[in-house]
TrEMBL record:
Transmembrane segments: none
Protein keywords: Heme, Iron, Metal-binding, Monooxygenase, Oxidoreductase
Assigned protein family: Belongs to the cytochrome P450 family.
Protein name as annotated: Cytochrome P450
Organism (species): Pseudosporangium ferrugineum
Protein's GO biological process: antibiotic biosynthetic process
Phylogenetic lineage: Bacteria, Bacillati, Actinomycetota, Actinomycetes, Micromonosporales
Alphabetical list of InterPro entries matching this protein: Cyt_P450, Cyt_P450_B, Cyt_P450_CS, Cyt_P450_sf
GO molecular function annotations of the record: heme binding; iron ion binding; monooxygenase activity; oxidoreductase activity, acting on paired donors, with incorporation or reduction of molecular oxygen
Length: 402
């Protein structure tokens, strides 16, 4: 059915009111138009949990290699090598096997003391002020520094790395159709790739105990990663592991501010923190949706999708599907929220999930330990209006010391 005929109109922007109007709209879509093609973009969207699982569980039909269907084949481009998110099996399986050993809960657990030290340092730097911007002062720098640690980049380069990440990933980088802006972003990306390549070459001749050295040495079925793949994978970690973690920590602080009873409970019983993180990934996910492309005709619900169709998976909608989550609009840190779609599902399920959980838990504990009262002060919250991403651009809080 055509959206304009149905009277459903366009989805309200998340930035309008932090998703409140959007969630009302999504509920209607799940009920009346669960598989819908947007007339202008011709992109299909799947709104129901069950249909999203169908797509993520079937990468042979729902491919992540979108570049195959876009103008200008970028398959052999040095930039796509090593980019797991844009790769289908069998290559995906091979690369994922090579890198996944370094991302188990046990492997990332070794980073705990360093993450705790970085979080304490960042919080310590603002503790005397009585107020801070959660994003600028804590949740933005933390993941960049942690990934730098993981990759074994020199501590002295911390500022450099933060600066590149900011320049590349800030969604405010301007109009990408503008030639000057595009060139600036491309130049920054090239600088970062050159830096990562130099680091890789150093580790090739003199391996250390870090991820880059392990990736250079790792071998599965007699296959190794190429240098381009190692460099681009390191780059991917900086892209995929940064803003996601930044915005999720901000979303946690925001959600706890709206639910003071849950905040008090988690503060009193730190064992509730893991459940709180999972529930926030369900209730307020950062990655709103992700794309696939159909490789063959397929039926989803009552709709027939031909081959070559772009399909958006609405994780934010699936997370509120009343068929799968009881009372889905309620934030409940005691529910078992682990089947949420906040980290995706299937073969592309977030590789960094154990690291993200660890970082978020440590940061939250550090805030609870240091501050006795936390209150969001900067209303109304300024949200990113980037499609596909949900979270605040900055989040001012006031706090008291213990
Ligand atoms: C709260 C923080 C995070 C969120 C919400 C998040 C979310 C996601 C989601 C939704 C996907 C699936 C994309 C898809 O299905 O197409 C994904 C994939 C991925 N994430 Fe995360 N992520 C987070 C943190 C991290 C961190 C810390 C890292 C690494 C340092 C990381 C690395 C990756 C990688 C490499 C993939 C691609 C996996 C594949 O395609 O096999 N993420 N993430």
């Amino acid at each position: 059915m055509d959206l304009r005929q149905s009277g459903m109109g366009k989805a309200p922007a998340y930035s309008l009111d932090g998703g409140r109007s959007l969630h009302r709209w999504l509920r209607d879509m799940r009920q009346h138009h669960p598989v819908q093609r947007e007339p202008l973009t011709r992109v299909w969207t799947l709104y129901r949990y069950r249909d999203i699982i169908q797509a993520t569980a079937d990468p042979a039909t729902f491919s992540s290699e979108l570049w195959r269907y876009l103008p200008g084949d970028r398959g052999d481009d040095a930039l796509t090598a090593g980019n797991l998110t844009a790769m289908d099996p069998p290559r995906h399986r091979l690369v994922r096997d090579l890198v996944s050993r370094s991302f188990t809960a046990r492997a990332v657990g070794a980073l705990r003391p360093r993450i705790a030290a970085i979080a304490a340092e960042l919080i310590g730097a603002v503790a005397d002020r009585g107020e801070m911007d959660v994003v600028a002062d804590l949740s933005d720098p933390l993941p960049v520094l942690v990934i730098g640690e993981l990759l074994g980049l020199p501590m002295a380069d911390r500022e450099l790395l933060s600066d590149w990440a900011r320049r590349l990933l800030s969604f405010d980088k301007g109009d990408l159709t503008d030639e000057v802006v595009r060139k600036r972003v491309a130049d920054t990306q090239q600088e970062l790739l050159d830096y990562l390549r130099a680091h890789c070459r150093r580790r090739r001749t003199k391996p250390q105990d870090d991820l880059i050295s392990r990736l250079i040495q790792a071998e599965v079925d007699g296959q190794r990663l190429t240098e381009d793949e190692v460099v681009n994978f390191a780059n991917l970690l900086l892209l995929a592991g940064h803003v996601t973690t930044t915005l999720l920590l901000a979303n946690i602080v925001l959600t706890l501010d709206e639910h003071p009873a849950a905040a008090a409970e988690a503060r009193a019983d730190r064992g509730l923190i893991p459940g709180l993180i999972e529930e926030t990934l369900r209730y307020r996910p950062v990655i709103v949706s992700n794309m696939r492309v159909t490789t063959r005709a397929v039926t989803v619900g009552t709709e027939q999708l031909p081959a070559g169709q772009f399909v958006s998976l609405s994780f934010i909608s699936g997370n509120r599907d009343e068929q799968y989550f009881t009372d889905p609009d309620r934030f409940d840190i005691h529910r078992d929220a682990r089947k949420h779609l906040g980290f995706g599902h299937g073969i592309h399920y977030c590789l960094g999930a154990p690291l993200a959980r660890l970082e978020l838990g440590i940061a939250l504990e550090a805030m609870f330990d240091r501050f006795s009262r936390i209150e969001v002060t900067g209303a109304p919250v300024d949200y990113y209006d980037t499609p596909g991403v949900a979270g605040p651009r900055s989040l001012r809080i006031a706090f008291r010391h213990h």
